[in-house]
């Protein structure tokens, strides 16, 4: 019987995994993550290694123009702008998510976004030849816009394309490529490779290559089936896209689920950010993504990376070897995020989030103790190193990859773009805030600043424990029903289904089969 066959295949079992679906889905995940998410990570750490050479270039250029050396405070200001323009651009990119994904589609937005990256790469790569440091600062802002869009659109695009039993694993792939981007930038930034006086313009310019590959390859893959059906009303294209992604012809069950989602949302229409913030039916979802995104960025991950060099130096690691130690930390980050890809579907989202925040809060607390005692107790510096590694493992399995997966899962099609816009804005604002405030915190509190991060990790963990549901292996509609109970609202779906299909499921099947 057709419907039973659908259920066996449509539940995305092992047969589907072996078929064409996995190839199409794998390729689209790899191309979109490499072309977009990889560059987000790459540009986070690309300016760390060549910083002295870039600052020297700023100084020389200023001297050539004015005849006087650059004032040290002005140089500090220019470098602060170079660093902070990236998260500021990320915030602007996040604010562009809602209009772009609704008007151009998910795939269309990713293709348009590549133009930002390619333009910025050309400007940064030629900045030394053109003898202008201003374009580097401008390009960092443009790359930030690219990263702001990429960090939101890729998880949305892949989440909407994935079958429910692979949605978590595929949703972690963008974060995996962010960590790979960070690692590649660290490796290429070694002084023996490109992190030197001659190589840094090439190091900055390389970021355009993944975008060029994505621009050439992504057009050959389908748009998000949910976008095609629910927002564009084109069932035929959605069906074709699903058949290609799943590797089998019979996709009625998923099409039906999309129609169900569409009907349950008909009354609200497309959500803007304002209507999302005031709509009672999505109150707890919205609070949850804000808490998770703030917890992710304010948990001190950037501070731990910042402190790592000094921690290793105090443990007796030779200063010339510290860059290799930094690369090894980047490698641990990649390996643990890769592990998250494989365990997120078996253990679930909640467990990984809770375990991750527990590890982060514990290591922050012990790190505070170890940093305070390392001048008196010799072995405390090794405990500090252990804390850094445990922290990075904890962050990589939960707080880093899972929040973006949860945004995809906790919102339906009409509210998802606005939700990503809010989540992305909170992400980049928090990132910007930590970058701005941490140096002052460190100057005022020293190692005790990690106690603040410990408290934030604990608070986020408590919230997740009591409020955030497990979404593993559930359809978007099932998750929406769970959250509707928490929001104390009645779902529109049941009443609308009765109105639309007075003769029940049979009538619904007829509509679906006639539209084939």
TrEMBL record:
Major facilitator superfamily (MFS) profile domain boundaries: 29-472
Q: Which domain of life is it from?
A: Eukaryota
| Alphabetized GO MF terms | D-glucose transmembrane transporter activity; fructose transmembrane transporter activity
Per the annotation, which location comes first and is thus the protein's main one?
Answer: membrane
Q: How does it sit in the membrane?
A: Multi-pass membrane protein
What GO CC terms are in its UniProt record? sarcolemma
A Pfam family cross-referenced in the UniProt record is Sugar_tr
Keyword Secreted listed? The answer is no
Q: Which UniProt keywords apply?
A: Cell membrane, Membrane, Sugar transport, Transmembrane, Transmembrane helix, Transport
Q: Does the keyword Transport apply?
A: yes
Q: Which reaction does it catalyse?
A: D-fructose(out) = D-fructose(in)
| Gene Ontology process terms (BP) | D-glucose import; dehydroascorbic acid transport; fructose import across plasma membrane
Cell location: Cell membrane, Sarcolemma; Cell membrane
**Which parts of the chain span the membrane according to its record?**
21-42, 77-98, 110-130, 136-158, 170-194, 200-221, 286-307, 322-344, 351-373, 379-397, 418-441, 447-468
UniProt region (Disordered), positions on chain:
495-516
Q: Which family is this sequence assigned to?
A: Belongs to the major facilitator superfamily. Sugar transporter (TC 2.A.1.1) family. Glucose transporter subfamily.
Protein name, per record: Solute carrier family 2, facilitated glucose transporter member 5
The species this protein belongs to is Falcunculus frontatus (Eastern shriketit)
Question: Gene symbol?
Answer: Slc2a5_1
